[in-house]
Amino acid sequence: MEKLITIKNASGLHARPAGMFVKKAAEFKSTVEVLAKGKTVNAKSIMGIMSLGLAKGDELTIVANGDDQEVAIAALVELVDGGFGE
Question: According to its UniProt record, where is this protein located (predicted)?
Answer without folding.
Answer: Cytoplasm
